[in-house]
Amino acid sequence: MEQSWKQAKAVFAAALGPPLAWLVVFFVAPMAIVWAYSFGHNAGLTQIAITGTFQNYARAIEPLYLMIFLKSAWVAGLTTVLCLVLGFPVALAITFASDKAKTWLLLLVMLPFWTNLLIRTYALIAVLRTEGYVNMSLEWLWKGGGTLAALAGLKPFEPFQPLELLHNNFAVVLGLVYVHLPFMVLPLYSALDRLDKSLLEASLDLGAGHLRTLFKVVVPLALPGIASGVLITFIPALGAYLTPDLLGGPDSQMIANVIERQFKRANDWPFGAAMSFVLMYLTFIAIAVQGLLAKRTPEGRA
Amino acid sequence: MAKKSPPGPLEYLRRWPMRAWLAAVFVFLYAPLIALMAFSFNDSRRNIVWKGFTLKYYDKLFHDSALLEAFANSLTIAAVSTVISLALGAMAALALWRFRFVGKTALDGAMALPIVVPEICMGVAMLVFFARVMPWPQGLPWPLDLGAIIIAHVSFSFPFVAVVVRARMASFNREMEEAARDLGAGEFRTIRDVILPHMAPSLVAGALLAFTLSLDDFVITFFTAGPDTVTFPVKVYSMVRFSVTPEVNAASTVLIVLTVLLTAAALKLQGNAAATAGHGGDGK
């Protein structure tokens, strides 16, 4: 049983004091200031007058910015779905692998997760850019095909046109999937691993096929885990800054890029503050929805 | 195939479509990284056609004082913020595990905030905080000039440590603590000789997590750092913005190797629990 704090006040204060103080001074206070700024307006170059105005929030839902919110949600949603589709079979295979294979596969999933985000994004740039590996391979194949065609007496191919793979929305979604796939696989795996395997065997014995077992038995039982995987992927994807910044084009801005611009270049802190709190509220809504879903399922303790 | 038994109904890993899928996913995850590392040894600026093996970009790297400084900054920040995070995280976990008090649920929620809040929001909060409330003095001698970044890093990593340590403490038998007390150990002695040894594996896992989180962080550092303090990710970012060069490849390779070594060391130290413990708490 937990002890009441009154029984050992000195220990309680010594243990809780420092972390609590740190959290309040270096996390809650900065957040609270941003929150206060979101109700203010620029008064002079470095002065912000907090007047309790809601005009920053009103501006955040103007069509221009509303579209960016919707687009970010759409990109993050697409990323999450793609990660789920790609990652589910991986998680399933890991769950039913032998112990030794399991260790190695988990390690393989985790290593990219530990690798620096910037480096992984940079690696993708090298793959996708106009002189990147994909385009070079295609060009090589194209030339080879052209040579073959010339040998066969056909008219030579047109000069190779490199594909525009970088600086567009495709690159952003690809980059987000690349970065967040391990986020999805690990919670899926931990949910599937806890599954009672005899239920699957029973379903297969009773004549259901693999796909039917998957959708009627595995998915409903693993739903809390799937929900937490979706959440863990969706939240960082929604607030992604680096991926759209480096891989995206002028039309692939996401919320985080708009916020960054308000603070670093446009110098409109109150509006940036409002935008970042809208993003926070969206995050909290996503967490609340997941919490509700987890409660509704009978075994829901993800 | 006659000699091998056919795959059992649940041995998904032995079915070829599953294997092909797995292989494709791992190629997707690893091919860009492996290409990046391979081309850091390529003797050509164009970075595409293989022209032969060279170490000249590594040589360049080790003579590039700006990059080296950034690297040293990153390692210092990671080391210091890991130590502070470990202390704060373990204290918080101990308090939350041992005591019942008014507002515990609220504190639990507040501790989870730095984990779930989008990086960009925390980044701007730190920017505002260090610009308006607690301006970090300019021109301090190294490593004091890194203070603001270290503070920001501790703020987002110590709750992770707390989650990992607390998960570990759940398996602690409280009677051991009582036994220690009955046998005459004081508070401090009990914590040092009974609780800390039980915590140890989670402290290693937490340290690894905090260190990697700090080394990995770009967004929050980008907002916190003054114009004079550059960390490795911030430096790479400014290099990447301009072009893809073999120097960046070489620098990235060094960091990837470092990450792999750190992970391997942590796994060796205490079995697989380290890596999975870190992820068990992740994102909750």
TrEMBL record, chain A:
The chain crosses the membrane at residues 12-37, 73-97, 104-128, 170-192, 213-242, 271-293. Keywords: Cell membrane, Membrane, Transmembrane, Transmembrane helix, Transport. GO terms for cellular component: plasma membrane. It comes from the Bacteria. PROSITE patterns: ABC_TM1. It holds the Pfam family BPD_transp_1. It is a multi-pass membrane protein. The keyword Transmembrane applies. Residues 69-290 form the ABC transmembrane type-1 domain. Belongs to the binding-protein-dependent transport system permease family. CysTW subfamily. This is ABC-type spermidine/putrescine transport system, permease component I.
TrEMBL record, chain B:
The chain crosses the membrane at residues 20-41, 75-97, 109-134, 146-165, 202-225, 248-267. Its main location: membrane. PROSITE patterns: ABC_TM1 (PS50928). Residues 71-266 form the ABC transmembrane type-1 domain. The keyword Cell membrane applies. Signal peptide: none annotated. GO terms for cellular component: plasma membrane. It is a multi-pass membrane protein. It is found in: Cell membrane. It holds the Pfam family BPD_transp_1. Keywords: Cell membrane, Membrane, Transmembrane, Transmembrane helix, Transport. GO terms for biological process: transmembrane transport. It comes from the Bacteria. Belongs to the binding-protein-dependent transport system permease family. CysTW subfamily. This is ABC-type spermidine/putrescine transport system, permease component II. It comes from Caulobacter vibrioides OR37.
